[in-house]
Amino acid sequence: ASDGTWTATIGPVQPGFHYYWFLVDGVPANDPSSETYFGWGKQSSGVDVPDPALDFYEPKDVPHGDVRIHWYRSATTGQMRRVYIYTPPGYDAHPKQRYPVLYLQHGAGESERGWTAQGRANFILDNLIAARKAEPMIIVMENGYASKPGSAPTTGQMRGNEAFGEVVINDLIPEIDKSYRTQPDRKNRAIAGLSMGGGQAMNVGLGNLDKLAWIGCFSGATGRNFDIRTSYNGVFADPKVFNKRVSLLWIGCGTEDSLMAGSRALHEALGKASVRHVWWEGPGLHDWQVWRKHLHEFAQLVFRD
Questions:
Q1: Are the CB atoms for 60 and 126 separated by under 8 Å?
Q2: What is the pLDDT of residue 240?
Q3: How confident is the model at residue 94, as a pLDDT?
Q4: pLDDT the model gives residue 40
Q5: Predicted pLDDT of residue 223
Q6: Which of 15, 45, 119, 218 has its CB 3.0 to 4.6 Å from that of 115, i.e. a possible disulfide?
Q7: How many Cα atoms sit within 13 Å of 73 on the Cβ side?
Q8: What is the pLDDT of residue 221?
């Protein structure tokens, strides 16, 4: 228009969360009227397109939990770290009740805020708990990037997260057990994540089965070079031992996801070896709409024997 305003129409756009930018003289710029979200390694504008067929992640008139920000010092990194914590409805009203804990990780280029801001994890759990489809639980959302002081930069897509497992086991779990009313044993601890976080959940979970008993891999970056005898330090080599020790191994991926080939290969290899696990596949790309579905399904199984 003559006054400098303009409009644009796009679409149709698939339901779910989408990042977007404006190009101003070829330079990407966020929408100043939009809340920003950390994705693609930067702050970005975002919009959530409603799905008329799905409402499990929408805020409803049910009891709601709280999302808290918790700061703690990591001895592994020598730094203060920020964690997002979901506490279920009634946490403050019932000071004697203790809860299981799900450690839930974001993907590459995202942050500890992703699962609440983009993923709506808190609303997913609120709705499931209200319907008695999930156990009341604490969810801990850490930043997946962690390096030791003075460590040399690593190469590859997942650079900067080489110390993450040590942070979780040596720093984070003790901090959460000290600061919140947890049930501090392996049968009441789970770890899950999406993409990079799914790979981290597999590495940390399978490598520390004395601390964790429930594992979820959502569109996980697990790689295609899987060997049932040697991968993950041979944890699958004896399926009977694994099946007895692990309460749940949950693996899922969207059918249009570029990581589907690796996820399906892992699923098929585990099935051939009689390793007990739950497999999910359904329409979708490598995006938040699929990961919301993954959490919705996983949360209904975890901490339920």
A1: yes
A2: 97
A3: 97
A4: 87
A5: 64
A6: 119
A7: 2
A8: 76
Domains of the chain: 1-50 (no CATH), 66-299 (3.40.50.1820)
pLDDT digits (tens, 9 = 90+) for 49-71: 999 999 999 999 999 999 999 99
Query: How far is 141 from 266, CA to CA, in rounded Å?
Result: 26
Cα separation of 124 and 129, whole Å?
Answer: 9
Below-70 pLDDT ranges, the chain: 1, 152-160, 223-224
To which residue do tokens 């892992």 refer?
A: 266
Average pLDDT, the chain: 94
- How far apart are the C-alpha atoms of 208 and 188, rounded to whole Å? 14
